[in-house]
Amino acid sequence: MPDPSPRRQETRSRLLDAAIEVFAEEGLQGASVESICARAGFSRGAFYSNFSSKEELFLALLQREFEQRATHLEQRARELEPVLREQPGCLSPAEAARYVGEFFSPAHDETTWFILQTEFELLAMRDPALAPGYHEFADSFYASISDVVEQVVAAAGRRFLLPVEYAIPLLQSVYDRALRAAALGAHDAPGRFDALGDRIAELLFAITEESEPPS
Fold first, then answer.
1. Tens digits of per-residue pLDDT, 116-128?
2. Which of 56, 87, 154, 165 could form an S-S bond across to 51 if both were Cys, CB 3.0 to 4.6 Å?
3. Who contacts 177 (Cβ-Cβ below 8 Å, separation ≥6)?
4. Cβ atoms 82, 152 nearer than 8 A
5. pLDDT, average across residues 187-202
């Protein structure tokens, strides 16, 4: 199948951008195709020439957002790895917290996306037809960032004490807790976002050890 034309890609992108805004305001169940089209400035015909249903748009939005976040982390890793390898000796907890904060710092405000992702997960739990697609995108995302995180940890002179596929969900839970606190406006919560670097650094020191220098 040929790649979609630039115009078609632009239409899809605008529909997906509009869907994020409408879903955030009205919820996944409350949002209608008509409201998404109105926000994007398109007709229903434009919508249905790109997506067969709101559910298909839902899965396309998941794919785009997960891929963007994986790409963002990969770019951060490429920037951070040489900096870490040039550091003399082992990183102190304070230094680790600073670099962790830089690595996990989102490119944009993630509060809206966290709310939507939570809704997406609930919708997938309720709809057996959507559950496989949700799991596929989520599993692909975690698999793609596992190697990235492991490479950054190695560049910092450490290695995981447990398989990286077990470590990633632990790190993700700390990240999600910070986003949840931000979404709830809990600015004084222990897991708040401005303390994310410290919290993840503490966890990393608990589940990693110093690597042996190459012989």
1. 888 888 888 988 8
2. 56
3. 191, 199
4. no
5. 71
Give the containing element (helix H, strand E) for 14. helix 6-30
47 pLDDT band, cuts 50/70/90, is very high
Dihedral (Cα; 131, 132, 134, 140), 10-degree rounding: 160
Residue 33 is part of which domain span?
1-51
Q: Which residues pair with 208 in a beta bridge?
A: 160
Look at residue 3 in the predicted model and tell me its pLDDT.
58
Q: Identify whether 144 is part of a domain.
A: yes
Question: For residue 167, is pLDDT > 60?
Answer: yes
Which residues lie across from 158 on neighbouring strands?
Answer: 210
Residue by residue, DSSP assigns 151-162 as: HHHHHTTEEESS
Domain CATH for 96: 1.10.357
Co-location of 67 and 111 in the same domain: yes
Task: Please tell me whether residues 61 and 47 are part of one structural domain.
Answer: no
Tell whether 96 and 134 lie within a shared domain. Answer: yes
Location of structure tokens 């919560």: 189
